[in-house]
Amino acid sequence: VNAKSGLPAFVDGKTRLFGIIGHPIEQVKSPELLTANFRARGKNAIMLPFHVLPDKFDETLRGVMALKNLDGIVATVPYKLRLTEYLDHIHPSGKRIGAVNAARREKDGSWSGDMFDGQGMVRALANAGFEVKGKRVMMAGAGGVGSAIADSLAAGGVKTLLIHDIDEKKAKDLAAGVTRHHGHGDVKFSAPTLDGVDLFVNATAVGMDGNGMAINAGKIDPGVFVFDVITHDTPLLALARQCGCKSLGGLPMTQAQADLLVDFILGAS
Amino acid sequence: MAPPDIIDGATRLFGIIGDPIDQVRSPQQITARFRAAGKNAICLPIQATVAGFDTVMRGLKATPNFDGTVLTVPHKVRAMAHVDRLSPQAERVGAVNVMRREPDGKWFGDMTDGKGLIRAARGAGFDPKGKRAVVIGAGGAGSAIIDALADQGAREVTIVDVDTRRANDIAARLGNAHSGCRFTVAAKPDPEGQDILINASPVGMHPGTEMPAPFGPFDARLMVSDVVTKPEITPLLAHARACNCTISTGVAMYQAQADMLAQFLLPEIAP
Q1: Directed axis angle between helix B250-265 and helix B113-123, to 10°?
Q2: Is B229 near chain A, with CB under 8 Å?
Q3: Tens digit of pLDDT for each residue in B69-110?
Q4: I need a surface site. Which of A91, A247, B64, B248 has the fewest CB within 10 A?
């Protein structure tokens, strides 16, 4: 036990548990980042990596949620949509997006969730000196994280938001949803393009395995800011650097939302 | 590569499952042993109610980076249903206090509760071979201790439990498994002529409680062991000490046990 903080070196019987669910899991940064965040707040709590297999999702989630000393869950790829099935209550932004990346057990035993990826991404961009207001954005990927980013970009006042997904209907539905909620006129489906774009966002898993890019381009204009949700280096980020573009990976997005996530998952305790 | 200070995405998960859980020491003790061996692994406190136990076990066993767990009160017997293979000790005792995922994906369960106490007693100079023992309490810990005594060569074990049927059942069951040891059941613990007296009941755990029986002076050659960890020196051990007996505490038992548990969970760290 650390005499100053009163916290155990790693863990003891009183440590409160939180877990991040994902597949794969080894690359996730939340265990380190959020455990450090808990400890900086003087909380004897830990963020665990839970490797959840897609075909064992239900069995694993039921087991994890049955742990009496586990108070919250963070979801990463590919479970941000699926986690919503296990929640009793979804906060408005999570509901709008249709996905959550954080859930907590309330005092009455029910579970509620919300989505923080979009806010984290916009904060990370701002920290890097890029303000989204008035910008033209191309985003590839209309899944959980893409939906969250679209919501926060619209809330942040982008001028134009072009959305692509290999599932065209998904991209169009997202554009329509964002338009409806934010009363925004220029959000629409588009094939991937860099034409006149200030910010290119990859919100797909393409490049996670080190291969491929969500846009077919040999070079990128150095005036384009490139953002990739993937937390390690990707072919897209490598090309951006090579072309002299400013760029950010997914890790700053995770870092920028650490306080928001921890505020939320500790909110009930 | 040295393990990270706390935890990261590659950390291998282990646990101790019980209810209540606040008081368990395995998280610190076992995690410290993993880290000392340079392993990026952690032993978590996992609180599972009796009603939620099967759901929790199914979920944890379906988690590929969860490799094993210690079981404590009240789950040691129910855990038998969640392993594919049992050690001879676990099979004889009818309970599991630790289980791990084997390389073939099957789950293997063992019972080390008894072995921990004997290892601690050995550390204090006691060898069970050819000895006579009296054990108070024939619950989960008691039956494991009785089995380990017989397994390590004790000549005679007297079993004392307020539930005499339970004591008789264990004497009958372990009698079949250990032909070299005589098991008897007694209503009261009599240290006369015994080599070791072991308290495996919770008596002594609560403030103001006394010894498991109103003992007179002990012969100084009697070894006295207790499974209770809080207080470390129970009224029984204080009495034994006053009689110049050698004692072995519940804390010593749990420390011996922690080595065995850590090595069972991560066999590659065994010396």
Answers
A1: 120
A2: no
A3: 999 989 999 999 999 999 999 999 999 999 999 999 999 999
A4: A91
Q: How far apart are CA B48 and CA B15, in angstroms?
A: 11
Q: How far apart are CA B271 and CA B259, in angstroms?
A: 10
A242-252, pLDDT tens digit by residue?
Answer: 999 999 999 99
Catalytic positions of B, written as ranges: 76
pLDDT tops 90 at residue A200: yes
Sheet (strand B223-226) strand order: B182-186, B156-160, B132-136, B196-199, B223-226, B246-248
Give the separation between CA A242 and CA B200, rounded to whole angstroms.
70
pLDDT higher than threshold 60 for residue B1: no
Distance separating alpha carbons of residues B264 and B260, to the nearest angstrom:
6
**Coil, helix or strand at residue B90:** helix
Is residue A131 within 8 Å of A259, Cβ to Cβ?
A: no
CA distance B189 to chain A (A): 34
Nearest by CB to B42, from A10, A32, A36: name it: A10
Residue with tokens 């290892």: B119
Q: What pTM value is reported for the model? A: 0.86
User: Is B36 an interface residue toward A (CB < 8 Å)?
Assistant: no
- Check: CB of residue B43 under 8 Å from CB of residue B34: yes
Report yes or no for ipTM above 0.90. Answer: no
